[in-house]
Structure prediction request, 684 residues.
Amino acid sequence: MPSQNGNGPWSSGGKPPDIQDLLRQGQGWLNQMLPSGGASGFIVVAVLILAALGAWTAYYTVPSDSVAVVQRFGKYLKEVPPGLHFKLPLGADLATIVPVKRQLKQEFGFTTPGATDPYQGPRDGRRDTKRETEMVTGDLNAALVEWVVQYRISDPVKFLFEVREPSETLRYVSESVMREVVGDRTVDEVITIGRQEIETEALTKMQALSTKYAMGISIDQVQLKNINPPKPVQESFNEVNQAQQEKEKLINEARRDYNKVIPLAEGEKDQRIREADGYRLKRINEAEGDVARFSALLAEYTKAPEVTRRRIYIETLQDVMPGIRSKIIVDEQTHGILPLLNLDTQQGILK
Amino acid sequence: MSKSLQIALLVVLGLGTYLAISSIYTVSEVEQMIITQFGKPVGEPVTTAGLKVKVPFIQEVNPIDKRVLEWDGSPSDMPTKDKLYISVDLFARWRITDPLQYFLRLRDERSAQSRLDDILGSETRNAVAKHELIEIIRTTKDRVPLRDALLTDAEKELDMGSLVPIQKGRQLVEQEIFAAAAEKVRVFGIELLDIRFKRINYNESVRPKIYDRMISERRQIAERFLSEGNGEAARIRGNRVRDLNKIQSEAYRQVEEIRGVADAKATEIYATAYNQSPEAVAFYEFTRTMQSYKSIIAENTTLVLSTDSDLFKFLKGMSPDGNGVPAQRSSGN
Prediction:
């Protein structure tokens, strides 16, 4: 009997037993049991066995996260919701269970251990895992990219009947699209600044392709995991980071020196200006004070100028005189006194 | 019933079942059938699914897949137009559109896959050899890359962080391979749906050189950063000296201006007051002189005074005009 091969990992458990084989086995067994038995007895036993087989293959259960696609003699019949269901026995109906509600994922460049879905991780072990990540960027540099695609089976009929290997095809599509997107970007975009954009664009392109390919799969998310430069180059990428830090450090140190001096100078400037302002106030106030005093004196002076002058003159001399150690008072008529004086210097009288 | 009759009945029953089983067959949704009679196809292929009938024993059914099939090329090394050895891995999707033709020419899928290997392999080689590497790496011709704000200066200078320009792009190269190969596989009853580059990578032998180039590029950027850092620091130090001088000289200027204004104002106040009348001028001169004596004449001053002076004129007599000496000032002579 023709049967579907490779309908994904979720084909119904075991093929229905082949009728011819069963009949042949049954005949042999019966002939042993009833070497000389009657034909009617034989027929009864055969019918009983067939009935038991029929009952055994006439029901199936669909898990709550799945639906079953039922084919009758190979032709698509219906889609069945979760629960216990009955079908025509002995291989006439074939029910394939498809987990439509389960969130499925495919990993590229790494494997989560213990995955039950054989399409989840890279196929051929370590070598393939590494090859999956190696990409060439749009500035002809190399980068290692790891990512995850989250998807669901949205249309079980398409998933089963349109494409032979939908899950494997999805892996191809994903690898192809990721390289296309990375190939349009610089190594800096890929490694640092463009991650978000890459995820978005890869998702859009993968969705477009999976629609075009009619795989019955809907892609929900593309997530980038580790993205690294190739091993031999990683050191030099770190050097750039260090240089970046060093640059910041140099600039910050210069700024520190600047900040140490300039605000202080501003403060000192204000101080000097304020001091000058103080000088201004002092000068003006003093001048006004002096002038007020002078004006007051002048008013009195003009009333009796002669006496006032005299008084001020005498008062001044009275103030001054007591402090002077040597005072010589000479009469106009007295001559020859000069040689008697023991003057300290030749300069004169005032010293 | 005699024993022989029973056996005959059993044989008839067995034969009948066998006849029935060999004259019916099922066709699944995913396949189509070629009916062959002694190995020779007869009639139209059966393309609808369901339970079908055929002539027992002499006719055989040959299932042929109706779904979209995949072809996964194995990675192979080939040179590009710019003499770079790269490893290219393609995948294609195809379907059998003419099952009879397919059945006659290829018979099974394994030979179909190997024909696809040959045809797509050689078309890929042709296309890759005609294009530079970048043409099969990049897709969008006018894409402007994002740039890290921190990297921009350094990279602009080094012409980095920019994409290598392209003429065609990956999709057009894929299209070329597809067009050439689709024509060639049609004779097998196969329709090629599309092909895409799955993996493109530098060949092992090329990689060290690529890595060296990447390392030297990174080093340049690192050096650039250091030099930018030092340059910026020097600029800041220059600013510091400039700003300091500016602040200090401005302070000096403003201080002198204020003091000048103050002195001028004070002078004006004094002048207006002292100059209000001739008497005021004389009085100012007199009082100011008197004031100055107090500071000019110190303890160790020797003062010779005449008895004619206003202060001592009475030493010689009571009457100021008795001596016929007029009241006269001779101060500090």
